[in-house]
Write a structure and sequence with these properties.
The chain is built from eleven helices and eight strands. By secondary structure, the chain is of the alpha/beta class. It has one domain: Rossmann fold, CATH 3.40.50.720. It has an eight-stranded mixed sheet, sandwiched between helices. Helix 3 links the parallel strand 2 and strand 3. The longest helix is centred in the middle third of the chain and has 23 residues.
Amino acid sequence: MAKTFDAESTTDEVLEGVDLTGKRVLVTGVSAGLGVETVRTLVAHGATVVGTARDLSKARRALAEVFPHAAKGGTIDLVEMDLASLKSVRKAAAELIAQARPFDVIIANAGVMACPQGKTADGFETQFGTNHLGHFVFINKLVPLLKPGGRIVTLSSAGHQLSDVNIDDPNFLKTEYSPFPAYGRSKTANILYAVALDRRLKARGIRATAVHPGGIQTELGRHLTPEIMAPMRARWGNIKFKNIPQGTATSVWSGFVAPAEAVGGHYCEDCHVAEVNDDPASRPGVRSYAVNPERAEALWRKSEEMVGERFSLD
């Protein structure tokens, strides 16, 4: 009988008895928090990991304690990439493509949350540009390196419930900016991207899924002032936080343990596939707009327009 896991399961519990020797995994955002823990557990089970970070020095310091956990054959390599710069994203992708070494799993872990209004190097709203468009270009370029049977895991959030994407105004040129609704847009985009990507790749045996890691207190929350958090607590009450090993469990469960057919094209939380839930007063589950295939295709077309590049992955 397959093991079952829940909100309190940790990465080590999810991967207990799983040998990842020979698996090559790409993880974005490995300089802190969930990224470091994801790398730790993967190399401890024998995987070869390639991690991306905007600040390689910070990533090396953060990962210094990870290396002793590496099982026989487990290794870590780093690639510099700033998701807020498409020039940097394309450079990192080109570097990996030139190596021509295939991947089994890509985990799109990096992101920013509830930051003050700003723009990426390409003029996109910071959260949408970093969390969605940067990964959109990076992963799409690397699809040819994915092995049949490979998986793509994009980290979304229950924050997607705060807002659908605004395809007509992704950069807040006509609507008033607010940090958390902007975050919600980007996290909905992460889910819709997984839906569209899964549709394009499943015939090749590659599946994509989006996950909510849970509420975790990491560097991601550096902008969360009491004023910003007040509407969240009013909406959902006191949020029960997970620790970091619990926060990475759903990522590794979706990428290595759950049946591919079960998670492909879906949104997962607490190590299970979430049900659609459109009750605004209820936090568990995924909003229907975030898994709508037509919305996913509309976002795909808009994203290609914004980044100035088309991706024919079918």
